[in-house]
Amino acid sequence: MDIEEEIRDYFATVEINLPDSMKLLMNLKDKFNILDSNAHAILESIKTDNVESEKKRAYLYSKIKEHLNSCQKCPLYAAESHTQKVAGEGALNSPLVLIGEGPGFDEDKMGRPFVGRAGQILTTILNKLEIRREKVYITNVIKCRPPQNRTPMQKEIRACSHNLELELSFITPKVIIALGAVPLNYFKSGSSIIRERGRWINSGEYWIMPTFHPAYILRQQGKALNRVKWAIWQDFNKAVEKAKEMCPEYKYS
What we know:
Elements lengths: L2 H11 L6 H13 L6 H7 L5 H19 L19 E2 L5 E5 L4 H6 L6 H12 L8 E4 L13 H18 L3 E5 L1 H7 L5 H4 L4 E2 L4 E5 L2 H5 L3 H25 L7
Parallel strand pairs: 2-3, 2-4, 4-6
Antiparallel strand pairs: 1-3, 5-6
């Protein structure tokens, strides 16, 4: 038996553990009869504004949610505080992604990210920037609500990271707004949101703008409230400006 036959026999008998993103990409190819085998080219094809690309994005999003709903990698999925997993939502072709910490009571109840009081503030900020909420992608580091809305544990973040990475692998954003300490430390471990907010972080793949979580505004009063609101407003403006600069053809309204 020559070496080529040995290789063929080997791959015929072993189970290859493909990354989830690659499995979904292969599903997409089969579903839409895509002949191109270049992963980058396929991902670029879902970003255009036409009916076929919209169908591809809708299919991918349904598969991302299926993957998330089957996740049992940490105890949070069985916690009493958790009634349903909360996937991100928005445009899978958006150059701009907003990442928070995790779902709270309202998000868990409705199955959507950022729909409580903090979410209302977030939507107001986007509206003032003339950005329709559905034209960006909004998600969280973890997808299950922790007990008493506590900060997620590192083991929970690690267990859930494959869900966030799956979202990002298909969106391939240019800019990420990290809303608070948890998403900041997801990309830059050991960081302080007080020190890092407003300062660009270049991960190689993304430009990341750390800022305060909108819920932080709710805990402020007086002059501190004005300072925090102004800081968040500046950070959002910088992030949106960068996203528009890097992807000028994308429309947010």
